[in-house]
Amino acid sequence: MKHSPKKSLGQNFLSDPDFVRACIDAIQPKADDLTVEIGPGLGALTKPLTAILKHLHAVELDRDIIAWMHTHYAADRITIHHSDALKFDFAALSKDSDANLRVVGNLPYNISTPILFHLLEQSRKIVDMHFMLQKEVVERMVAQPSTPEYGRLSVMLQYRLHMEYLFTVPADAFDPAPKVESAFVRAIPYATLPCPAHDEQLFAKIVVAAFGQRRKTLRNTLKTWMTDPDFSTLQIDPQLRAENLGVAEFVAIANHLA
Fold first, then answer.
1. How far is 132 from 125, CA to CA, in rounded Å?
2. How far apart are CA 81 and CA 92, in angstroms?
3. 230 and 106 share a domain?
4. What is the pLDDT of residues 146-174, one digit of tens each?
């Protein structure tokens, strides 16, 4: 197919067969898996997935790509959902099935973080996720406290997901080549949260406030909620910054306030 990538949709198509193979090896699809691919593009992952899976769901926004897919894939092997991934109800795919959902995709860089948060809301129905993302985003996803990459994204994702940085993918593995490197990441929702928050909305607000001004201390960023005696009770130094706290400590603050 002669398809001009659309900048408005953040299209960069994976084209290197070695990295396609590495992605499939990491996913390890099984025939009966309930799987959805976000942004199948020109089928780099779709083709090997449909060769193994009995059926694949695909979420695609580009009408031209959908038209092409209808001519290349049998309807009984793939269901194509014409939708914006940010609005798609992924959990609905497993409502009529006991099987949990597997999600894969080469995510558009320009909306990758919103998609991750959208999937986070539906993670109870998801067994695992494998994504190609901008390397910088993956580094933030897996970052540990007291590192430059650690931030709100790290805390909110790690609260609900176990994550693994799998491998780096150079720009020339894509067509067109993006200006940045990419990375392939695995995210597995916890069956039981390691540190459950009593009020998850409050937890999220605390994290947003704490990282709102990264260079300020917790005493300043959380002054609306926390006093020095509160910090003392939790044995957290108010002179620390948000980047110094782990997920468990943010949960402890939220649970103390709840």
1. 21
2. 12
3. no
4. 999 999 999 999 999 999 999 999 999 99
- The answer to whether 37 touches 146, Cβ cutoff 8 Å, is no
CA distance 20 to 178: 17
| Average of per-residue pLDDT across 170-193 | 93
In DSSP terms, which residues pair with 70 in a beta bridge? Answer: none
Phi, then psi, of 88 in degrees rounded to 5: -80, 140
126-134 and 174-175: which strand pairing? unpaired
pLDDT at 98: 67
Report d(CA 98, CA 88) in Å as an integer.
Answer: 20
Give CA–CA dist 92/36, Å, rounded: 11
Which stretches of 21-125 are assigned E, i.e. beta strand?
Answer: 34-38, 56-60, 78-82, 101-106
Residues 220, 107: Cα–Cα separation, whole Å? 36
Name the residue among 129, 80, 78 with its Cα closest to residue 101. 129
* Cα separations in angstroms, 141 against 74, 127, 162, 168: 36, 18, 10, 14
What residue type is 250 in one-letter code?
F
Domain that holds residue 212: 200-257
pLDDT tens digits, 81-129: 999 999 999 999 987 666 689 999 998 887 889 999 999 998 989 999 9
Q: Are residues 46 and 128 in the same domain?
A: yes
| C-alpha 5, offset from chain centre | 23
Residue 183 dihedral angles phi and psi, to the nearest 5°: -150, 150
From 164, 189, 214, the end of a domain falls on 189
Would the pLDDT of 239 be above 50?
yes
Outline where DSSP puts E strands in 91-203: 101-106, 126-134, 161-169, 174-175, 182-189
Average pLDDT for residues 30-53, to the nearest whole number? Answer: 94
| Contact partners, residue 64, CB within 8 Å, separation at least 6 | 3
